[in-house]
Design brief:
alpha/beta, Peroxisomal Thiolase, Chain A, domain 1, three-stranded parallel β-sheet, two-stranded antiparallel sheet
């Protein structure tokens, strides 16, 4: 087993408990949950009506409205968290070291929300004119690292990995093995009807708690409550 050490020099986060490291860490220390009523989709026909959503995310310090509109939500989250981490690290990208710095990011599913919305628009007329030219670059996993490499002029290895819930671990391990100065991140958003429905059928949603705010950090559902 390799004993090479990995140093984390910068952090960034966009999450249900906070949209930057300071607020997220403060919420975790206070035991505050990020679980609340689902608002991004209509959950009328679902047995579960609460979950972890990103709320009150201010994109202005990171992305233009035009660029954000061309990205799936998961991509916005990943790019913003990545920018936070780069700024927090203090790493200066120069012409001399640009090709020695790489980005390896991961996402469990990519732009599922955009995929659903685009297909729904196509079904309205069965015409390709309903499909945006930005659909693919706005929903594929590796464009998170692509946007970050452009923003910071990083020209080293640029990769993406998708291994479900172990994606973060693989991104960190694979990125640190590239022989460069790597930046690793994971981004995901499953707040879409298909994403929620699939997890419901796999009994992966807790539906017992009527007041989602009572769920505290570290609390696990009982098996009989997963329906």
């Amino acid at each position: 087993m390799s004993k090479r050490r990995v140093v984390v020099t910068g952090l960034g986060i966009v999450s249900p408990v906070g949209n930057d490291v300071a607020s997220a860490w403060s919420a975790i220390l206070a035991g505050r949950s990020g679980i609340g009523p689902v608002t991004r989709i209509d959950t009328t026909t679902f047995s579960t009506h609460f979950g972890g959503e990103i709320r009150q995310l201010d994109i202005e310090p990171y992305l233009s409205v035009k660029d954000a509109r061309r990205m799936d939500a998961f991509m916005q989250y990943g790019v913003i968290a990545g920018m936070q981490a780069m700024r927090d690290s203090g790493l200066e990208v120069t012409e001399a070291n640009s090709d020695r710095i790489g980005i390896l990011m991961g996402s469990g599913m990519g732009g599922l929300e955009s995929i659903e919305e685009t297909y729904d628009k196509y079904l309205e007329t069965h015409s390709p004119k309903k499909v945006s030219p930005f659909f693919i670059p706005g929903s594929i996993i590796n464009l998170v690292s692509g946007h970050l490499s452009i923003a910071f002029n990083i020209t080293g290895p640029n990769l993406a990995v998708a291994t479900a819930c172990t994606t973060s671990t693989h991104a960190l391990g694979m990125g640190s093995g590239q022989g460069t100065v790597p930046a690793q991140l994971r981004s995901a958003s499953r707040q879409s009807p298909v994403g929620q429905g699939s997890r419901r059928l796999c009994h992966g949603r807790w539906r017992r708690c009527d007041d989602a705010r009572r769920i505290r950090v570290g609390e696990s559902p009982r098996r009989q409550d997963l329906r």
